């Protein structure tokens, strides 16, 4: 019996990239994309575009209205039974990725939504695998080396996004320990394609890039803490897609947690210097206090408009965690996927930003 592949989070970036690759991997497979009602038109447009580009996958995907925040994923009983009666693979990609997300929305989507997906997976007659996308930032603000299999180290969290993704991964890990076939993927900060620089949104390190690019020949960059010692772990989007697409069918990835993070990330200072070099600026670092900077951005009139930097980003300029990707890198070597170093893709990142200044910072929720 052919496998049905259920996607949450379509037509977001990951779902749109992984759906056609998953169908190419299994010529007899069919896909079902669980879509919120408000994103249905966009999902149809995205699917039409994907099928026009790859006619061999045309007609193999159904768009189904659903909602991960309710039990049963908002599916009617007939649809739920049909999905679970044969071989089923699930890509759970839906989440709220906003660092400033309010608690109720973060818990509803990230935690309750993941719990409902896991419950649905546990009811499948034959679950091929649950492919779950988490984040490296389940580490919270752990001060030290955080390995792939680490999860509960007494860490604190900078925001509701980190906290709820941590709680969601706990749900998935518990189900995996009980025997559910699962692979957990933990991307770090995802930026544009390593070759083209293309991205759907400017957030995270792009705020620093934008601040530097807006200035004259001398770019003043306010940085808290010790920017020469703090790593900023960022990876290009094509690496994340290539890694998940290659590991999803790989038997050795089942039961694993994979850190999709850079083995040798730049420091905050190195990252800002690279942005300055690629925008023909001279960088001047201005030491600032994180606490005072947050107060100024959030409370003082005009500061937020001047810097165009959300205060939630400041925590990642002093992020104390170092990610150990040794085991993940070895696993990716088995499937021929390599994470390009920052020096290889920063040029494309800056060039795309220069040529497409109007890309926003909002992600699909």
Number of distinct helices = 12
Strand content: 15-25%
Strand order of the largest sheet: 3-2-1-4-5-7-11
CATH superfamily of the largest domain: NAD(P)-binding Rossmann-like Domain
Looking at CATH, which topology of the largest domain would you report?
Rossmann fold
Work out the radius of gyration: 21 Å
The proportion of residues forming helix, as a percent range, comes to: 25-40%
Distance between the termini: 34 Å
Instruction: Kindly name the structural category.
Output: alpha/beta
Looking at the overall shape, the CATH architecture of the largest domain is 3-Layer(aba) Sandwich
Report the count of strand segments.
13
For the record, what CATH class of the largest domain applies? Alpha Beta
Describe this structure in words.
The chain is an alpha/beta fold and 365 residues long. The chain has 2 domains: 213 residues, NAD(P)-binding Rossmann-like Domain (Rossmann fold, 3-Layer(aba) Sandwich); 113 residues, no CATH class. Helices cover 39% and strands 18% of the residues. The strands form 4 sheets. The chain has a 7-stranded parallel beta sheet, with helices on both faces. The protein has a two-stranded parallel ribbon with strand order 6-13. The protein has a two-stranded parallel ribbon with strand order 8-10. α6 packs across α8 and α8 crosses α12. The longest helix is centred in the first third of the chain and has 20 residues. It is globular. The mean pLDDT is 94. It comes from Actinomycetospora succinea. This is Male sterility protein. One of its GO terms (molecular function) is alcohol-forming very long-chain fatty acyl-CoA reductase activity.
